[in-house]
Amino acid sequence: LNSVKKTHALVVAHEAVKTAGAGAEIAAMVAEEALDYLDAPILRVGAPYCPVPFSPPLEKAYIPGADQIVAAVKSLLATNPAIAAAAARVGAVFNPVNYRLAAQEPR
């Protein structure tokens, strides 16, 4: 919740299905506890609502990857200048090498 209060945004990424997954519970908790701090809708990145494929190449396509997370974060920053400004104010930078929003320290 402290991160949401600082950045005014939330992107939840997980390997479970997006519908009724762990990310939905996190999004609900943030909506209950810190809704007034959000300047944009909560974005969730998760697997599609379908059976998990058995084939390794299909399973790899099924599980959300770094590209989807990067796209979600970039869309959030691009569509809302207030969020980009808040992220810069708290010293957060988007690091495409590590695919994460990080506090100025390298991983």
Short synopsis of the structure:
The chain is an alpha+beta fold and 107 residues long. The chain has helices at 2-7, 22-34, 56-62, 66-79, 81-89, and strands spanning 11-17, 43-47, 92-95, 100-103.
The termini sit apart by 22 Å
Rg from C-alpha positions? 15 Å
Biggest β-sheet description:
2 strands, parallel
Return the string of H and E elements: HEHEHHHEE
- Look at the helices and sheets and give the structural class: alpha+beta
Bin the helical content.
Answer: 40-55%
What's the helix count? 5
- Strand segment tally: 4
Residue stretches low in confidence (pLDDT < 50, at least 5 long) are 96-107
User: What is the 3D shape?
Assistant: globular
Biggest sheet: strand arrangement: 1-2
Mean pLDDT across residues: 81
Percent of sequence in beta strands:
15-25%
Q: Secondary-structure map with pairings?
A:
Elements: H1 2-7, E1 11-17, H2 22-34, E2 43-47, H3 56-62, H4 66-79, H5 81-89, E3 92-95, E4 100-103
Quickly list its features.
globular; alpha+beta; two-stranded antiparallel sheet; 46% helix; 107 residues; 5 helices; two-stranded parallel sheet; disordered C terminus
Task: Give structural notes.
The protein is of the alpha+beta class and 107 residues long. Helix content is 46%, strand content 19%. The chain contains five helices and four strands. It is globular. The chain starts with a helix and ends with a strand. The model is unreliable at 96-107 (pLDDT under 50).
